[in-house]
């Protein structure tokens, strides 16, 4: 425990972690995912995972449970969540590629160079793999079964290297060679579902980022893409509803808020958006119903109270 100065509260948080949190807070949104994880943009999936595990142990709120952390409590939660979000993006091939493209201008010179090099290497690797798959697809007779097995094993290796898109291409070729092999089809379905979920998460994160910057139209486009990729993504529907409301498109806001509530009836924020949209559409009775619903769950919801009083 650090000794407390006169008039100060003792803090059970090492000085180096205090400095780390203060530095992170001072940089705010200017810190990149790579800098947050303390890895370069040339890091592979294994290095990214190791970096995440190491840093998360330091700032995970549970690591300091029942400790006196004072003002650093909210910072531990905030930056652990940011760290987890960064790892989620960089640990997935699809979302990392999108992040690199969208945030390239924010990266350091060395990281931009690493991204360019990795992109060239990836493109060359994909070209070679594509040529090899094309050769195997021309295999004749029983040799096609063996070729399919080679492609299946190659796909599994790509999965281990966090190269899902290449694994999918290998499995598609393997399925063409041996359409009756169940493990090929099963693995392909699994990876394609993972890919869709990853793209949905990437689009959702992009929507949130644009919404925070008040780029409503761009945020709506991203949220819509996330919802198309994952029709059960209530967060995407809720985000679109908020942005449409900010754009004064109450009809669209009500449509998307309704979708969000169909997926998560307990989402009081979306219910509030729906009520505000109904008010803008002069549908006071329906707005009143939604506001009363909110207050039955949360009697102290100030905004719902104010809106209901104004009706």
Model description:
It is a single chain. This protein is an all-alpha fold and 311 residues long. The protein folds into 3 domains: 15-91, Helix Hairpins (Orthogonal Bundle); 123-196, Tetratricopeptide repeat domain (Serine Threonine Protein Phosphatase 5, Tetratricopeptide repeat); 231-310, Serine Threonine Protein Phosphatase 5, Tetratricopeptide repeat (Alpha Horseshoe). 75% of the residues lie in helices and 0% in strands. Helix 6 (109-137) runs parallel beside helix 8, helix 9 packs antiparallel against helix 10 and helix 11 packs antiparallel against helix 12 (250-263). The longest helix has 31 residues, at 182-212.
Break the fold down into its secondary structure elements and pairings:
Elements: H1 15-27, H2 33-37, H3 45-59, H4 72-90, H5 93-103, H6 109-137, H7 143-160, H8 164-177, H9 182-212, H10 216-229, H11 234-246, H12 250-263, H13 268-280, H14 284-297, H15 302-310
Helix pairs in contact: 1-4, 3-4, 5-9, 6-8, 7-8, 8-9, 9-10, 9-11, 10-11, 11-12, 11-13, 12-13, 13-14, 14-15
Give a concise summary:
The protein is 75% helix and 0% strand.
Low-confidence stretches: 1-8
The structural class is mainly alpha
What's the total count of β strands? 0
Q: How many structural domains can be distinguished in the coordinates?
A: 3
Main CATH class of the largest domain: Mainly Alpha
CATH superfamily of the largest domain: Tetratricopeptide repeat domain
As a percent range, the share of strand residues is under 5%
Gyration radius, rounded: 25 Å
> Helix-strand pattern, N to C?
HHHHHHHHHHHHHHH
Q: How many helices does DSSP assign?
A: 15
Query: What share of the residues lie within helices?
Result: over 70%
Query: Whole-number average pLDDT?
Result: 90
Shape: globular
- What is the rounded distance between the termini? 55 Å
CATH architecture call of the largest domain:
Alpha Horseshoe
CATH topology of the largest domain: Serine Threonine Protein Phosphatase 5, Tetratricopeptide repeat
Profile the largest sheet: none
